[in-house]
Amino acid sequence: IMRGGSLSKCMMIVKKKPTDPDYEKEWNNMSFVVYDAPEAKGNFQERLQALQGYFDKSDGLYVNLHEYKRCEGKNHAENELKQEEKKGGEGILLTNPKGEYVKGKSKNVLERKSKFVGIATVKEVIKDKGDSQNITSLKVQNKVGIEFMINRGITGDLRKNPPKVGEEIVYEYKGILDSEKPKAPVFIMKVLKFE
Predict the structure, then answer these.
(1) How far apart are CA 117 and CA 67, in angstroms?
(2) Which of 41, 68, 85, 184 is the most exposed place for a label (fewest CB within 10 A)?
(3) What is the pTM of this model?
(4) With the CA atoms of 52, 29, 1 and 59 taken in that order, what torsion angle do they form, in degrees rounded to the nearest 10?
(5) How many CB atoms within 10 Å of residue 169?
(6) DSSP state of 2
(7) Which residues contact 178 (CB under 8 A, 6 or more apart)?
């Protein structure tokens, strides 16, 4: 995790080489955050107590224990999500305190992220090189003039009957990147026009 930084900035630092300028200075803004202890016995609450015992003896300079709060209900979770997004975070995780550790996806951990909806104009229809009858993605421009590609949500009939250049589409996304492009845009539908 990078304190006060975005995911894209964090990824840029991780990819730097030790010979790059400001390598050490940039890495001093990074911190390794521990969320769970898969090897510890017990449910999540017990594993967290085991971790707390370790971190009570640590200086916490580069490795820190993630801060957890007890969820008081749906409204509390929604407020926490809004606060995290205001700070530039992507979302929150809700963890069952009595849940055992499961490798991979688990019903004991619920990921919560906001989804946003936008309208964009189709600038180009990108066709499959192997099959010119099918499309693979759409180059679009949103209402503030940002151009980006959409390749998710383009399935079935849409591949054979895509929107035309100049038509508007509805897309869903998970926030805005540093480049001002929408994050993970997904095609939802063509905008219906009524005469």
Answers:
(1) 31
(2) 41
(3) 0.59
(4) -10
(5) 21
(6) B
(7) 6, 8, 9
- How many Å separate Cα 35 from the centre of its chain? 17
Give residue 69's identity as a one-letter amino acid code.
K
CA atoms within 13 A on the CB side of 158: 18
Where would I find the beta strands (DSSP E) of the chain? 32-34, 63-65, 92-95, 109-112, 116-127, 135-142, 147-150, 168-173, 186-190
The per-residue pLDDT string of the chain (195 residues; one tens digit each, 9 = 90 and over) reads: 555 556 667 778 888 888 888 888 888 877 788 989 999 999 999 999 999 888 888 776 678 888 889 999 999 999 999 888 887 777 899 999 999 998 888 899 998 888 899 999 999 998 877 766 678 899 999 999 999 999 999 887 888 788 999 999 999 998 888 788 998 899 999 887 765
**CA-based nearest residue to 112, from 153, 65, 78, 69:** 78
Q: Cα-flanking dihedrals φ and ψ of residue 142, to 5°?
A: -85, 180
Entry field: residues in the chain: 195
> How many angstroms separate the CA atoms of 49 and 182, rounded?
39
Beta-sheet strands, E only, within 107-190: 109-112, 116-127, 135-142, 147-150, 168-173, 186-190
